[in-house]
Description:
Elements: H1 2-5, E1 9-14, E2 20-25, E3 30-32, H2 33-41, E4 48-52, E5 58-62
Antiparallel strand pairs: 1-2, 2-3, 4-5
Pfam family, one: DUF3892
Organism: Paenibacillus typhae
InterPro entries: DUF3892
Amino acid sequence: MINNERERFVAAQRNGDGDLLKFQTSSGRVLDYQQALQEVQAGSIAGVNVFKGKDGEMYIRGDADGDPTNNLDQLPQF
């Protein structure tokens, strides 16, 4: 299945306000937010999608699967 071949986010770095700054992928790569956004838009990262916020900016969020344990806010720090 192609879904198993795509990377996932396994950890994140946040700023003091809790905003996501960087992501670590299942292969160990570290992506800043813009790099991660581009990879999610390209379909390279599983379990997440991109949406346009009220401010017109694009943001990454976890897929709505009803499981709160895999939300991006639940990712461990690295």
